[in-house]
Design a protein that fits this description.
This protein has 117 residues and is α+β, with helices and mostly antiparallel strands. The chain has 4 helices and 4 strands.
């Protein structure tokens, strides 16, 4: 949830660069401590891990029956305006995450977007 809040806090920078955001989670509901941050980013739920398997990002360290089964490798996929995959950035370790501003810089680089002024 921390990463989603961080993305939300930096959403204006993504918007300024013309880059939209969509999050996918394995949770059916988002749980967190009370926060003053309202999430406006669309959040999809992948409770059966089908999209994570299809995208090849399912963390295979956990098998069905394990409480952690369905956890994807953390990261992002960049889709260009022609709906093609332009880049991917994933981390093996479940405990690590991509910082949202580093994600923005990566997306801008992959898409060839100039820094907004």
């Amino acid at each position: 949830m921390r990463q989603l809040i961080q993305l939300q806090e930096n959403k204006a920078a993504f918007d300024a660069a013309g880059i939209g955001l969509v999050a996918i989670t394995m949770m059916t509901r988002l749980y967190s401590k009370p926060s003053s941050t309202i999430i406006t980013i669309p959040v999809l739920s992948d409770i059966d891990a089908l999209s994570f398997k299809t995208l090849g990002i399912l963390n295979e360290d956990y098998e069905k029956g394990d409480a952690r089964y369905g956890i994807p490798h953390p990261g992002m996929i960049i889709i260009d305006p022609q709906d093609k995959v332009a880049g991917k950035l994933f981390i093996e370790a479940y405990s690590s995450r991509v910082d949202s501003l580093a994600a923005l810089a990566f997306a801008m680089d992959v898409l060839g977007v100039a820094s907004p002024r």
